[in-house]
Amino acid sequence: MDIMQYSYGAVQPAHCSDEEWALRIQLAHCYRLVDYLGWTEMIFNHISVRVPGPEHHYLVNPFALNYNEVTPANLLKVGLDGHLAEPSDYQANPAGFALHSAIHGARDDLRCVIHTHTTPISAVTMKKSGFAHNDFYGAQLFGRIGYHDFEGITLFAEEKERMLQSLGEKHILVLRNHGVAVCESDIERAFFLLWTVQRAAEIQVAGRSMGGEDQVLQDDVRQKCADLTQQLIRNDGFAVIFFAAIVRKMLKGLYQVH
């Protein structure tokens, strides 16, 4: 059995194309991984991926389900207006529409968006200086982060344009005093980016709790690190390999899938 095709007991509906079903399986893996790693916020937050096609439909979690209850079949397909594109017994969380629909509607290069506010990430977003770039993971994020000032819960369409302006051409949107949205061309790259952001936040929080002066990296070293990371992810497939490895670890550990 190819465990990457493991569907958590869900059966492919007749109307669902093989391409979309494969995307649904991959997104279900991503939700389960976020739960497995302890990065969930109960039933809140979102991971979305755009479905191929001109409609800009995207898949997102059903509101009220835990991340470890998400399957390929119960994922919602919604439009940029937040309305369901296909019938479902569930509704989506309206707090996700402004952020996810804004990015999916404006950035064709960004097909997957992951929003979290883990404790270390949220702690870093409270600081005016934001993310530092003086450790192995933080250096990989150099030049890739946009910052958006807190306006409350992201419910309203009027905030979309301001969030897009804050993101610009970057791949990470820090929602100040809140959390982060990482955006990439596919699920594997988005998950790898989230992993990097999480590790950078963890190390920064730990480092700031210690006495002593930090060893500050120069911008040219930071840029070299960020550029090389992107080369490895895009040309050498590091993100794909990493995603498959951690999915295997999760499935074998939690579901005894071999």
Automatic annotation (TrEMBL):
<feature type="domain" description="Class II aldolase/adducin N-terminal">
    <location>
        <begin position="25"/>
        <end position="205"/>
    </location>
</feature>
<dbReference type="InterPro" id="IPR001303">
    <property type="entry name" value="Aldolase_II/adducin_N"/>
</dbReference>
<dbReference type="GO" id="GO:0051015">
    <property type="term" value="F:actin filament binding"/>
</dbReference>
<protein>
    <submittedName>
        <fullName>Ribulose-5-phosphate 4-epimerase protein</fullName>
    </submittedName>
</protein>
<comment type="similarity">
    <text>Belongs to the aldolase class II family.</text>
</comment>
<dbReference type="InterPro" id="IPR036409">
    <property type="entry name" value="Aldolase_II/adducin_N_sf"/>
</dbReference>
<dbReference type="Pfam" id="PF00596">
    <property type="entry name" value="Aldolase_II"/>
</dbReference>
<dbReference type="InterPro" id="IPR051017">
    <property type="entry name" value="Aldolase-II_Adducin_sf"/>
</dbReference>
<dbReference type="GO" id="GO:0005856">
    <property type="term" value="C:cytoskeleton"/>
</dbReference>
